[in-house]
Design goal:
The complex is a heterodimer of chains A (about 270) and B (about 400). Chain A has about 270 residues and is an alpha/beta fold. Chain A is about 45% helix and about 15% strand. Chain A has a single domain, classed as Aldolase class I (TIM Barrel, Alpha-Beta Barrel), CATH 3.20.20. In chain B, strand 11 and strand 12 form a beta hairpin. The model of chain B has no long low-confidence stretch (mean pLDDT about 95). Classes of the chains: A alpha/beta (about 270), B alpha/beta (about 400).
Chain lengths: ~270, ~400
Amino acid sequence: MFRLSDAFARARTGHRAAFIAYLCAGDPDFDTSLAACRALLTSGVDVLELGVPFSDPLADGPTNQLAAQRALASGMTTARVFELVRRFREFSNVPVVFYTYYNLVFCNGVDDYVRAARAAGVDGLLILDLPPEEAGEFSTACRAHGVGTVFIVAPTTPAARIAKIAEVATGFIYYVSREGVTGTHDQIAGNIPEAVARIRAHTQLPVAVGFGISSRAQVAHVAAHADGVVVGSALVNCIRDHLGAPEKITARLAEVAAELALGTKRAG
Amino acid sequence: MSTPAVPARDSLPDAAGHFGLYGGVYVPETLMTALQELEAAYLQARQDPAFQQELRHHLKEFAGRPTELYFASRLTEHCGGAKIFLKREDLLHTGAHKINNALAQALLAQRMGKKRIIAETGAGQHGVATAAACAKFGLECVIYMGAHDMERQALNVFRMQLLGAEVRSVAAGQQTLKEAINEAMRDWVTNVRSTHYILGTAYGAHPYPMMVRDFHRVIGLEAKEQMIAREGRLPDELVACVGGGSNAIGLFFEFLEEPSVRMFGVEAGGHGIRRGEHAARFAGGRLGVLQGCKTFILQDADGQIELTHSVSAGLDYAAVGPEHAFYRDRGRIEFAYATDDEVLATFQLCSRLEGIIPALESTHALVHGMKRAKALAKDRIVIVNLSGRGDKDVQQVAKILGHQT
């Protein structure tokens, strides 16, 4: 968990927003996915957000749905996802946050899952379909095992709920910049500065912004206000576009990520 | 371990939407405020005599309530045991009990100022009911339906389109009800401010299981009154099919506190209880969280949701309504399943003996209801909820049985 707070602190010291890069664990297969994660490291990624493939990803758009299908088809299991993190830890100290759905965490015991995640080298957990109202058992387990919790604030979240969410989050707050599912958009959502300010009124935790951010200009716009910028579908698309030539995936990812990372630097 | 006590039925769910261990609210944050607004609007409407009166009016004049409690004399004779009564929800407008809930939620959406309606559908009955309610109230209507279900329920697709709804095909996964719900949830997350999601069964995040149950309670209220008027006593057993479980909880609720009445929910046994070949959650599932609530779910060792199969699209779903899981733990509602083969045989038998073509979903209840009737003495009474009519299934059954159409 210290890896996570350190990553945000380092970015702040460097006058930039933390670059949070999303990939689906095991997309399109274990070895390519591990190589893809490694490729991101060369491009200034501060936090690796790993989507844990789930059969029913109801908060995800087509890009991430298909990535999860590819990963599951290649044989990813809970054990293999943890193994991927262990292998990543052999060469990197970049914090890893899981982006997942509650059934995968819940079905065999929340405490066991969180302990195993910690042991594998996971620093934080974000569960898409777990609001704070239902998060008691999860928060207890994360506290016990030193794993950070990440909770979402949406444009539809009123102030009173932001306070409630800020109380249970320990890693960072993830502001979903638009109503909708994950995916790239030409137009970035408006009002991000106001939203980030509303959240900061309730918490000292870093505030990251994601959903629909896919260009350097969009990254720069968000980075001017938020502590972290999440880019997902734009990176996942690098994998999708090279399924016929997987040897090209790492180079393309490194290139795209490096370009996006330039946007995280704040002016002045 | 002793069976936990059965609490007062009206105490459930609790304020947070829990039926004991089950239920709750497991959705993306973007939907939380909408669900809380929906709960507040529903609780207010529930107390409002004007809303209730308007709903009763539409249920009578548009949907055709009350429905008959019909004595199935030839099925009774065929079984040679208890008297079999059919609660004729199949006679409702649009062909199934689904209209009770669709009308009520459409009224509620109007009250909330939402002009756009989305819904999922499996067999198409909920989609048709929602499309009809939207046409009646002048609401925009989008129905999500799995591509596989669109194929096997083609007639209902065209009915929805005739009623002015847009039917969107869902090609993900196994292309049935679960995927349609995922896609409806994605739409709702994207359009939450303008849109109300008319969920079609007693499932999902709070307040849906409670609200949908309440809108179907009329089934049990009528059945109880009709039975007492006709036979001067309560029935001995109730049988209903359970996909999400809305027609079942609608019939059962009024009898939960009548200890002499046994209740059976009947799940889809498909080809038999083997992985991926059935939808009997209580026979092959375990505790999990899917599409909004905690309940019994067909899943693999890691928690990935398993494929399901049933000849009936409406029961072909990997999870079961949380209130059913709660009452099953307490032994108050018992569960059984019927296989595709049993269902196809009884579908034909009921048609021939009673002149009633039942929906394949409801036929699951009939299969078990007939087993119960055979096991009981002639002075006993079994009510089977005939939740829908089988017109929509005729083409599919003809194909399965090898008839040329």
